[in-house]
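pinging the channel bc i need a second pair of eyes. not urgent but kinda urgent?? the chain im working w is below, pasted from the shared doc
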Amino acid sequence: MNNLLAYAGFFAFVNLMTSSYETFSRDGHKLDVLTDGSNDGLRIVVSRSGAELVSLERRDAMGKWTGFLFRDGDVSKAATGWNNHATVMGYYLHRIKNERTLYRGHEIRGGTHSFLRHKIFAAPKVDTLDGGLMIYRLDPAQIAEDEYPYKVAFTITYSLNRGVLKVTFHFENQEPELSTHVSFGLHPGFAATSMESAEVLMPAGKYVRHFAPDNFLSGETEEIDFAGGPMPFKKSELEGSFLLELKKVDLPLFTFLDKESGRDVMLNFSGAPYVTIWSSGQAFICVEPCWGLPDHQEQRPFEKKEGIQEIEPLGKLTRSFTIAPGFR
């Protein structure tokens, strides 16, 4: 009898921890849903269009699912303003000057945040053990030469574990003799009741602000020694973007807080060299980990872009960060 009770208890534990996966279509998007089965778990929805996270939800104290992203779960076209939720950025991010650049003599053409946002990804590889994960992959054969001229495969993994979402970028350089270069990041917009209610808390440390009037680097920088707390920038100026290098930030934990609803999001950017803070003025603020910066006003060759990451021949590059939504 005791063995039977132990057996039943074991399977109750497994059922509690096992996540679930489903897929459906809405408003022209194929959507994948992963739900963490733990008591303090999360539910995410990812669109195969751009492998974009379009919903991040957590149960509140009453057991109700609550969303944390701007327009959370709404994939219809916005009537005005920002149309996205958490754009995946790569193989470059932000902007290239005049939507063209040269990479070792090869021309790259593309718009804001590169081409990943316009790619339709295949069904993800899914694992529902523990919190669960979904892996989206793009192979070099799916990338046009004027989008990116070298053979570099890309995967992005969304994994859930006890109330924390981990996002992992992985690049595989398939070139046997050439190093390759990539910039990348995520562009999540966190929902607020209003801009007055929204707050971004920054950790203590030394930052370098890179100025980018008209979205391109001017070369002007400013060092900021910050004691920690609410960001030292006016929310009314966020539309111009604050591009911050984490020069010496020992514990890079950023927090987005919506004071009226009590929703907060802790972001661990350990290993990310830059963070961008931006808003269009609508009721959200983007807090974005970035591995790279936009072009300079006086454009440099692609491989010499500020902050660009280099991958050795046949090498791999993996970087990640975490998002932990909660309530105060």
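so The chain has one helix and 24 strands. and Confidence is low (pLDDT under 50) at residues 1-16. — does that match what u expected or am i reading it wrong
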